[in-house]
Amino acid sequence: MSDLQSRLREIPQVSAVLEDTRLAGFLAGRRRLWAGRVVQEELERLRARLREYRGPVATRADLHEELVAAVATRCLRLLRPAWTRVLNGTGVVVHTNLGRAGLPESAADAVRTVAVRYSDLELDLESGRRGHRGRLVERKAALLAGSEDALVVNNNAAALWLAVRYLSRGGPVLLSRGEIVAIGGSFRLHEIIAETGSTLIEVGTTNRTTLEDYRRALVPGAVVLKVHRSNFAMEGFTAETSLADLAALCAREGCPLVYDAGSGLLVAPADLGLPPGETLLGDDVATGCDLVTCSGDKLLGGCQAGIILGRAAHVAGLREHPLRRAVRVDKMTLAALDAVLTAYLDATGLLPALPALAALALTPAELQARAEALRDALAGNAPSGWRAQVVAGVSSVGGGAYSTAELETRLLLFSGPHEELEACHQRLRRQDPALVARLNQDGLGVDPRAIANDEVPLVVAAFIDAWAPLTAQGKDARDGEANRG
């Protein structure tokens, strides 16, 4: 008998695994429908591993224990929420991998209300007839941006796709070569345009596109598209046509202009401590663009959504487009976005009460105080040989506009043996809530910019738990030295 056959013969029978009392809770009632599939999947994984394995043949009892443990682990994981709460100590405010902008409590409350109760989502209470989903939310967006009308869809890629498809009707779309961007894992602008059925006409060069380049490329029935580069910047010998100049050209030539504004900024950059250079949504709309699109979960400070702003006739056409239903949002997204837009309408000061904007606007003095408070709360708990200090550093905005901007911040930086720093960082990420920090050659750092005040005790508890194995080792070593002495 071959080694492979010997290994495979030791795989436990499915019936033996299903009868193991340690899995009884997972296989009770309706759970058996899916837990039984987990058992089958883990058996297949075990077979595949044994086919590649060249070591000693494990006994059936050992493989049974391994299989039961794997099934129990997977079942427990499936019964937990799909995501783990994360404490963001990276200093990246609009962190794509961590869910981007956090919502205000008012948005969370609004989502819960419409999620667990009925609402007038598509009912006009005054007339008793069917109403229009999201119209008041869209009206708020239009008022804030100074546009004639607005439409909310599920994200900015969908907003751009729908706008271009509607206005071009399969005709040519002019776009600067320097704006054919790729964002994230699968957003490639030329592929999005291809899916609209339109023909892309590249204008100018990668680093220089002038107004004359656009004028020469114009053909009858063309739509001009301008795109905010968002996640990268170009420097050196460059030239870019301003949105205002492009809008004036399109008005003279009678061709539609669509602008993808990216992040959707509604407050002055200076009020957020950001450098100048980015325009407000209201300014973009005021240039005369036919349609302007933006994201809801970046500098707008809200949830994932795409917002289309512009001329009432165009927005009405988009609202009636047969594919609009494919990209519409559900009631919970509308409720969250409504609360965010209401925060803008309700604001009497410089900034609306939104967590992402508040984090961006923190001053170095405020960050210094936060970092020192965190250092003091952790004093005396660090492993032996570790050192904690508050140092200057840089935060970043994150996804979207200002991707290259650096914001002055303060870090709580721990230095110590590199292996211990790495082990601590890994244990921090495995906790619930997890803490994601920074680890580099300088040490293990926590930027307090994106950590809410009520999360500070959770950060302290996370470090103390992560340090426990290291402090225990240190205590054992000291006890051993004392005994030898």
Describe this structure in words.
This protein is an alpha/beta fold and 485 residues long. The protein is globular, with a radius of gyration of 28 Å. The protein is built from 17 helices and 18 strands. The chain has three domains: 76 residues, no CATH class; 250 residues, Aspartate Aminotransferase, domain 2 (3-Layer(aba) Sandwich), CATH 3.40.640.10; 126 residues, Aspartate Aminotransferase, domain 1, CATH 3.90.1150.110. The N and C termini lie far apart (60 Å). The longest helix is centred in the last third of the chain and has 29 residues.
Can I get a quick summary?
This protein is α/β, with parallel strands linked by helices and 485 residues long. Helix content is 43%, strand content 16%.
CATH topology (fold) name of the largest domain: Aspartate Aminotransferase, domain 2
User: How would you classify the helix and strand content by structural class?
Assistant: alpha/beta
Q: Return the CATH class of the largest domain.
A: Alpha Beta
Q: Tell me the β content.
A: 15-25%
Quaternary organization: single chain
Second CATH tier, the architecture of the largest domain:
3-Layer(aba) Sandwich
Counting structural domains, the number is 3
Question: What Rg do the Cα atoms give?
Answer: 28 Å
